[in-house]
Design a protein that fits this description.
Blueprint (H helix, E strand, L loop, with lengths): L1 H66 L4 H4 L5 H19 L3 E11 L2 H14 L3 E10 L4 E12 L3 H11 L1 E11 L1 H27 L3 H33 E10 L13 H29 L1 H37 L4
Parallel strand pairs: 1-5
Antiparallel strand pairs: 1-4, 2-3, 3-5
Length: 342
Amino acid sequence: MKKQVSAILFAVMLTALAASACGNAKMDQAEQIAATDSASDDVLMNSGEMDRNQAMDSDAGAGLEDGVSMKSEELVPEDGSIEASDAENASAAGTEKNQTQKLIFTYHYSVETKEFDDFYQKVNEKVTQLEGYMEHSETNGSAEDSISRHANLTLRIPADQMDQMLTLLDSDSNVTYQSRSSENVTLRYVDLESHLKALRVEQETLLQLMEKADKLKDVIALQSQLTQVRYEIESYESQLRTYDNLIDYSTLYLTIMEVSRTTTVHSSKTSFFDEIGDKFSDNVYALGQWLRAMAVWLIGSLPILAPLAAAGFAAVIFIYRKVRGRKRNKRGQETDTNDPES
C-alpha cells in the first residue's frame, strides 16, 4: 500500500513539473511574439512617419517650386560669397573668444638717462597723451648737491596703448632691465559674475516677499537677509570693478636712474673679450668717479677741515713739547743725584 502511495505522489510531482515547464515555455513564446509584434508596430509607425515626412517634404518642394521667388542663383552666388561669409564668421568667433579672455599685464622696467628732467617730462607727457595716469611717484637725490637722482614710478596705461610707452623707453633711455608677466583671471571673473547674477535674483525675490509680508517679524527677518545680500552684491561689484581696472589699464613699474655714463647691456651675442673689455672700462670709470667724489668732498670741506686740522696740529705740538720738557726735567734730576760734589 505504501509503495502505491509513493508511486502516486511521485507521478503527481512529475506531472506538476512537466506542466510548469510547458507553462514557462508558452510564456516565453508569448513574450517573444509580443516583442516581435511591438517591433513590427514600431517599424510600421516609423515607416508611417517617414512617409508623412517625405510627403511633407515633397509638398514643401512643390510649394517652393510654385510660389517662392528666391532662385538657386540667389542662394549660391557666382563669386563664392558664401565661403567668404563662413570665413568671416569663423574670424569673428575667434575674435570674440579672444575678447572674452580677461588678462592682466604687468611690466617692470629699469632705465638710465643722462637728462633726467627732460626724460621725466617726456614720460609724463606720454602718459597724458595715452590717457593713462600716474598711480605712484617717488623721486630721490638732488642735482644741486651733485647727488644722482632716481625715481620710482607706477604708471597705469591702457592695455592697447602700452606698446607706445615701451617704444619711448627703448628709444629715449638705456634699458637695463625689463620683464613682462600676464595673469588670466577669466575663470574668477566669470565666477564673480555668476555669483552677482544669483544675488541680484535673490534680492528681487526678497523685495517681492517684503511687499507681501504682513507680520513684523517676517519683515525684520527679510530685511536682515536683504541687507546681507546687498552687502555681498557690493562686495562682488567692487571686485569686478577692480578686475576691470587691472584688465583695461596695464601696470608699469618704472625705475629711472640719472647717470653720467650709461651701463653697457650685454646680449647673448656679445663675445667673451668684448664683455671683459666693457667690464674693465666700467670699473675704471667707477674708480675715477669715486676719486672725483672724494676730491670734491675734501675740497668742499676745507672750510671745516682746515681749522680742525690746525687745532689738531697745535694740540700735537703742545703735547709733544710738554712731554719733552718732562723728560728733560727728569734727566736733570737724575744727573744732580748722581753728582758726588752735590
